[in-house]
């Protein structure tokens, strides 16, 4: 293998650096003593703002709401996404393509269109905006993440495993529980983690489907538009990075390991 | 011949006019067949001939579009695989990758609600039967191809099927292992007294293992019978060509060589090259031919011949016999009875 | 060599097992049963509400009472072509195009390096290094740029230290791309969009490049092609499906976004903001729906063209 030329290496490393430098700055600003502006370099460093955030009930309430919404939306997405994947992974029928397109639609369309459409639908059905309208909005676009992961794994699952299970006396439900579920488990877990991260971070659809509730991204957005508590926002930003970082890293290793296991049978 | 002494009245598997299409393709086209209890039955044919679909129809993975299927006298149309007293050894073995070898074998017992201790005991017994004792804790991925095959066999046998279905079970094994498994499968089948239905595209495998062979072509059974019958008396040109190799003669050519005036087959090893001290059989047609080509194949030599009448023949002669010279002329003897009229071509 | 012969107990024959009989016998029924719950939500509620919302683009608004007149008309759709509104459409499509081009330029070397030169370990590290920012919080990433782009922020400070302060001033003094500071200029907005969607370009381009056989590149080299010719005639055409696939993301995501322009950008509106304003403060749902149709139609056109290049295989 030849080595890459110097300009190519610089461009590649530069591209990756571009992706990571803003995140490093967020980390840096969480410790700044500056309160009124985004002055660089920070005049001094302090841990004080972590303590302040720790004591802020409104932030904890937003975190709690976001976690609750993400958990329930993920569970809903897991059920609906797995069902959809089971129906479409290995079948061919008229109308299959439009249906699989439909599952992708909520992330393919601009979030604002999905948000307004759902807002109007809730209005028409006279459903008051609440915790549950946020959850339904999030589940709508989380389904596709679970669906994609589950479909990919189901397609790698040899169909003769399911036949073998039924051949040995297991009915459809036993086969699902004892054979299919254990084999797609890590893919579902990975899909669920990504769905969780997606929901935890979502702001656009939430803007339209939330009533008076404030999820963490909604709180963050209001701070972005009208900065009032810069140091607190700096710390919250770091916390959000950490909370989304962990499930994504876990999802990555889960799908990688799954591939290794599935591949070793060949 | 225990096959005939067992109650021939109720076959282990019976097909009557069974048809299965996939779209416009008739994968199985009006198949009738009866497999006796305790019989080792081979379904032989090229890929796409319908043999695997027939096996899947017995297992219940496919349902017939027309016709009737019985297993030990009971109609099974519409019954799902898990309600049929048959089990399958899959071509790719289909071992459950997330379960240990022991749990793979015990799977059929577990779904029947048999307790842990009892099913472990039965699984150990089944693994001992296929000479894999002590492998219970391994994962399928840690086994060799031959071992996986044995696990698949134990997993199917442990639930006491009335008929065992084997889908090209030896296809993925190397030659030496395949020969070993052939004799082992055969003795296992004798010991258990089960019906084995065995799908293969390898004619030598079918001939060496089966009590009876059904030859499939284009969704139909073209001939069924004991291996000797199928080999010695192929019913059609297809069988003559697919099961071993054969010289196929037209009606007039057969008559000219002393046979019936019916398209006939002539196995290459039946042709005798005279001279060199070989005894000429008492009743035989004699003719002269030119040697076109000779190829050495280890135990035998394959000799391509052309008669003055323009008939091309292939003969197999012992390699130890003095070789015919390419371009030379030889005298042939074709014993009476070597020419087999093909019943399906009458 | 034998197995004890005995009859195994028959499995319990409950209601579930009988239900399973029906589902196994009729595979179509199973597919249908599985599809019903997701389709009830996505097909009925979601798709239904989309149609209801977008369908209102054929209604109009009564200018005096501010209520929706439920009579089919094309006046609302024609309003999109009024100069002020048409500008919004053109501006947004223009920004999306610039962002897409920038993404291609920055993504290509990263993807090319990862596809052709990185070993398995480096490849995994590259993948993670692209995935992590992709999945990081959108708002936090925007916030990070707000820190960087602020007048008193890091970019200004570094520019000053490197003696480029004058250059930055000059750039900001330019028409169109300039502004009072980076955080209220098109330059800043495009930079943030490029940053946000870059991973969506790197991944498909890399996937497309991975499929270019090494032998093909070597063969072209053996035939005496210079690196530039090689790139233009072999690599770029083969990478094109990946570029188009990435462009689907970068283009559509920019087209529909209204948060970035609200936080970092000029006072001139983009499509997303127009939709937001029309449904919110202006209360003109028909016009909001008409504006919403624009990104959908543009993307439909884009996808139709993209399908011809085989971009969907690179997704």
From TrEMBL, chain A:
Topology in the lipid bilayer: Multi-pass membrane protein
UniProt main location, coarse: membrane
Compartments where found: Cell membrane
Keyword Transcription regulation among record annotations: no
Stretches assigned to the ABC transmembrane type-1 domain: 63-251
InterPro entries attached to this UniProt entry: Bact_Polyamine_Transport, MetI-like, MetI-like_sf
PROSITE patterns: ABC_TM1
Residue ranges of the TM segments: 12-31, 59-87, 99-118, 130-154, 175-197, 203-222, 234-254
Gene3D superfamilies (UniProt xref): MetI-like (1.10.3720.10)
One Pfam entry name: BPD_transp_1
Entry superkingdom: Bacteria
Keywords noted in UniProt: Cell membrane, Membrane, Transmembrane, Transmembrane helix, Transport
Similarity comment: family membership: Belongs to the binding-protein-dependent transport system permease family. CysTW subfamily.
Protein name: ABC transporter permease
Record lineage: Bacteria, Pseudomonadati, Pseudomonadota, Alphaproteobacteria, Hyphomicrobiales
Automatic annotation (TrEMBL), chain B:
The UniProt record lists the keyword ATP-binding: yes
Keyword field: ATP-binding, Nucleotide-binding, Transport
Keyword Oxidoreductase tagged: no
Ranges of residues in domain ABC transporter: 13-243
GO molecular function annotations of the record: ATP binding
InterPro entries: AAA+_ATPase, ABC_SmlMolc_Importer, ABC_transporter-like_ATP-bd, ABC_transporter-like_CS, Mo/tungstate-bd_C_term_dom, P-loop_NTPase, Transp-assoc_OB_typ2
Sequence similarity: Belongs to the ABC transporter superfamily.
Protein name: ABC transporter ATP-binding protein
Species the sequence originates in: Ancylobacter radicis
Automatic annotation (TrEMBL), chain C:
Keywords: Cell membrane, Membrane, Transmembrane, Transmembrane helix, Transport
Transmembrane segments: 27-54, 88-112, 124-143, 155-174, 186-209, 229-251, 258-279, 285-306
Main location: membrane
Record's subcellular location: Cell membrane
Topology versus the membrane: Multi-pass membrane protein
Keyword Transmembrane helix assigned: yes
Residue ranges of every copy of the ABC transmembrane type-1 domain listed in the record: 89-306
Annotated InterPro entries: MetI-like, MetI-like_sf
A Pfam family this chain is assigned to: BPD_transp_1
PROSITE patterns: ABC_TM1 (PS50928)
Family named by the database record: Belongs to the binding-protein-dependent transport system permease family. CysTW subfamily.
The protein's name: ABC transporter permease
Top-level taxonomy: Bacteria, Pseudomonadati, Pseudomonadota, Alphaproteobacteria, Hyphomicrobiales
